[in-house]
Every structure is written in structure tokens, then in C-alpha cells.
Write a structure and sequence with these properties.
about 210 residues, Four Helix Bundle (Hemerythrin (Met), subunit A), two-stranded parallel ribbon
Length: about 210
């Protein structure tokens, strides 16, 4: 019985992660292009070995690992035996995270981008899920990654979660926050001072750190 639950959990994780990836980077780009003739992709190039480069490498690696984890489980890679309640929690986190990614991307509208173009200025999005934290898409992806670890508790999913957490921290702190400060100035300072980075009220930036007296 436990083996059947584990296989079902692995298939659920694979389906959710694959669906989320296809929508977040494929369908969303197509919809953006159809509406604006712009895919929203701002990948550019980063100096190899730089923090921004590592952010991208870790992020892409995390996505690959989180897709590979359930495949490895289905192929017979040993996993930690967990209670059914843990598996159910993982399913809820994974599903909720996937839905939150979609909702947050829709909230961004024409401001949605993958990557940053320093010369570009888009509207600052502060509504919807962005009222609760500044990076709800990354928060949702973290939920999905944590859920995947609970669904398929093997070394691959653990590595994927760690890579995602580190990569997202680098991307936000090194790439995106400096860009947003430069692009939106005082408006972003006020928003960042009252809104947490990944969780409500956690990681709010002090005005001194944002360049205000």
C-alpha cells in the first residue's frame, strides 16, 4: 500500500512541476507575445562566475532537479519513508504553489518579465499577491519545491530545494532589487519598507538601507 502511495505521489509531483514549468515559461510567454508582440524574456548574458550568473545557474538547475526527482523516484531511486500525512501536506503545498505562480503572473500583466533589462522601465506591481510580499512568484515556487520534497523525499528533490532557495536569494538581492530601486526610486522604497521580501512582514527593507536618510 505504501508503495502505491509513493508512486502516486511521484506522478503527482511530476505532473504538477511539469505543468507549472510549461505554463510559467511557455504558455505565459506565448500569451505575452500574442498580446504585446513581446515574450517578456530578458535573459541576456551574465559574466561567468558572477553572483548574477550563479543565480541563473542555480535557478535553472533547481527546475531541472525538481522535475528529475519524481522521475528518479519512479525509476526506483530510494526515498525516505514518510507518513501519509506528510505526503498529503506535500501535495497541498505543490498544488497551492503552482496555482499561486499562475495568479501572481496574471497580476503582473504587461509588467511580467523573466530576467531584467536595465534599460527597461515597467510598472511597479503592488496589488494582488504582491500586497503580501514583494516576490510572490518565488515564494510560490519555494512552496512547490518544498511540496515536491515531501512528496518525493529523495536526494534529488532535496538538492532541488536547496538550489532554488539559494538561486532565488541571489536573483532577488543581487539582480532584481537593485534594478527596482533604480527604476522606481522612492515608490519602491516605500513599498519595500512596508512589504516583506518573500513572506508577509519578513525581510522589509529599512529606509536607511534603501538610500534614504
Amino acid at each position: 500500500m505504501r508503495g502505491r502511495v509513493a508512486m502516486t505521489a511521484a506522478w503527482f509531483a511530476l505532473t504538477a512541476n511539469l505543468t507549472g514549468a510549461v505554463y510559467a515559461f511557455g504558455v505565459r510567454s506565448y500569451l505575452a507575445w500574442r498580446a504585446t508582440r513581446d515574450t517578456g524574456m530578458r535573459l541576456g548574458t551574465q559574466p561567468p562566475g558572477s553572483l548574477a550568473w550563479w543565480a541563473r545557474v542555480l535557478f535553472v538547475g533547481a527546475l531541472a532537479l525538481l522535475l528529475a526527482a519524481p522521475v528518479a523516484a519512479l525509476a526506483g531511486l530510494p526515498a525516505l519513508a514518510v507518513a501519509t500525512a506528510v505526503t498529503v501536506t506535500g501535495a497541498v503545498l505543490t498544488a497551492a504553489g503552482t496555482v499561486m505562480v499562475v495568479l501572481a503572473q496574471l497580476t503582473m500583466g504587461s509588467s511580467w518579465r523573466v530576467g531584467v533589462d536595465p534599460a527597461e522601465r515597467t510598472d511597479l506591481v503592488v496589488g494582488g499577491l504582491f500586497r503580501f510580499c514583494r516576490n510572490p512568484i518565488f515564494t510560490a515556487m519555494g512552496m512547490t519545491a518544498a511540496g515536491t520534497l515531501l512528496l518525493v523525499p529523495n536526494l534529488v528533490s532535496a538538492a532541488g530545494l536547496v538550489a532554488l532557495l539559494v538561486g532565488v536569494q541571489l536573483q532577488v538581492r543581487v539582480v532584481e532589487e537593485p534594478y527596482l530601486l533604480g527604476a522606481h526610486g522612492a515608490a519602491y522604497r516605500r513599498y519595500a519598507a512596508r512589504t516583506g521580501r518573500f513572506l508577509p512582514l519578513v525581510g522589509r527593507l529599512k529606509t536607511a538601507a534603501l538610500g534614504e536618510a
